[in-house]
Specification:
Elements (H helix, E strand, L loop, with lengths): L5 E5 L5 H16 L3 E6 L13 E5 L13 H16 L3 E5 L1 H15 L4 E6 L2 H4 L5 H13 L2 E4 L2 H11 L6 E2 L15 H7 L5 E6 L8 H14 L2 E6 L5 H10 L6 E5 L4 H7 L2 E4 L8 H8 L4 E4 L4 H4 L6 E4 L4 H13 L1 H17 L3 H15 L4
Parallel strand pairs: 1-2, 1-4, 2-3, 4-5, 5-6, 6-7, 8-9, 8-11, 9-10, 11-12, 12-13
Helix pairs in contact: 2-3, 3-5, 8-13, 11-14
The structure holds ligand GMT.
């Protein structure tokens, strides 16, 4: 290892792929000997077991009665500066431009420019928030003033440049999976609880936000299950869950669909499945499809955002236009009926997840960025 770094990490700790990526990255950096300080409003949900190199600092928000909105952003900025000073941090790596990068830049002003700020864009901070005229200039400011900016796909880099007219270099750092956690698990006995031996299992995991188009999952499954005995597992919860339940009921498919709710052991559940469905309207990367890939499960997804950078059509899964559930169902049937094709795709999935998107590679890319901004190449 070059120098041991002291790194502060801020993310949304309780939900979503960005929190998972930030937490897993912190754990891997700590394993490599760096000192990692998570500075968030609650304990990151994937933090797990104790590690001597990992520290957690909770941001407490002042709810003084005159504040209509408790000022979380100011409390975070102040905490970032405090921790940076107390612990002698080299840099803050913040996930999401708004508000985290802005808070980190305030902390940098308070502490001095030796404290570097690395910002990672995950998607909705650009694909949703950068369309909001009231936030656009602030996001551009956060990006331009960060010492380095990374994004999770080429597509997100392109969209950031287009939407915000940014010239500054943006580094690509794909999402990654820890192959010690995501691999095909032996789930033979658990599988019996979900499906009969001749039934196939399809799975969808998300936060059930409208952008995930969860009803397309139901329609795709309905078409597949007409021809192939199969089951569907829904993992996660969110605003569109009740719509999904209604549609499943309407189609008379309740006995074939299991709603698992929020689950921790995603690798175990993924290993049960034959196919993952991800028909999102927009997806800057699609971490969950990578997690599936690492468990040897091909994904049928929409041809949206950064998904084609992850899934190679016909090799590690299949892509269809957004909303084209007939095509998605046809691809599912194609794979489920042809064992040889399925096996080839499964092997390609495992290979791609373990090479292009492996934890060692991407962690090293982030480390290089840290050393670069610190002038310690
Ligand atoms: O997909 C979500 O709704 C959660 C969101 C988040 O903020 O955690 O995920 C975004 O970041 C992930 C990690 O980089 C990406 O894999 C997801 O594709 C991205 N989601 C969207 O772009 C909609």
């Amino acid at each position: 290892m070059k120098d041991r770094l002291k790194i502060g990490i801020t993310c949304y700790p309780t939900l979503g792929g960005s929190g998972v990526v930030a937490t897993e990255l912190g754990k891997l950096l700590a394993e490599k000997g760096h000192e990692v300080h998570f500075i968030t409003h609650s304990m990151p949900f994937r933090l797990g077991k104790f590690d001597k190199n990992i520290f957690y600092h909770e941001v407490e928000v002042n709810d003084y009665y005159v504040f209509k909105y408790p000022p979380y952003d100011l409390s975070l900025a102040s905490k970032l500066a405090q921790v940076a000073q107390m612990e002698g941090l080299d840099l803050l790596h913040v996930h999401y431009a708004i508000p985290h990068a802005v808070c980190a830049l305030i902390a940098q002003q308070m502490v001095g420019s030796n404290l570097k700020v690395v910002t990672t864009l995950h998607g909705t901070d650009i694909t949703v928030l950068a369309h909001d005229e009231s936030l656009k200039d602030l996001i551009r400011f956060a990006i331009n003033r960060s010492d380095a900016v990374t994004a999770v796909s080429e597509d997100l880099i392109r969209e950031t440049r287009e939407l915000l007219a940014i010239d500054k270099p943006i580094d690509l750092a794909y999402n990654f999976v820890d192959k010690r956690v995501y691999y095909p698990r032996d789930v033979a006995s658990l599988r019996k609880e979900f499906a009969k031996p001749d039934e196939k299992i399809m799975i969808h995991i998300s936060n059930f936000r409208p952008v995930k188009r969860v009803l397309d999952v139901v329609e795709t499954f309905a078409l597949v299950s007409q021809d192939i005995p199969s089951r569907l597992l829904f993992v996660g919860e969110g605003p569109d869950l009740s719509k999904v339940h209604c549609r499943v009921k309407e189609l008379g498919l309740l006995d074939k669909v299991t709603f698992c709710g929020k689950q921790d052991d995603v690798a175990q559940l993924l290993s049960l499945a034959d196919i993952m469905l991800l028909p999102s309207e927009k997806e800057s990367f699609g971490l969950v499809a990578l997690e599936a890939m690492a468990c040897g499960v091909p994904t049928i997804a929409s041809n949206a955002g950064g998904i084609p950078e992850l899934i190679t059509h016909g090799e590690t899964g299949f892509l269809a236009d957004i909303g084209d559930v007939e095509k998605m169902a046809a691809y599912a049937k194609l794979m489920l009926r042809d064992e040889k094709l399925y096996d080839t795709i499964k092997k390609a999935c495992l290979h791609r997840a373990r090479t292009t998107f492996c934890n060692e590679l991407i962690t090293a890319e982030y480390e290089d960025i840290y050393y670069r901004v610190l002038g310690r190449m």
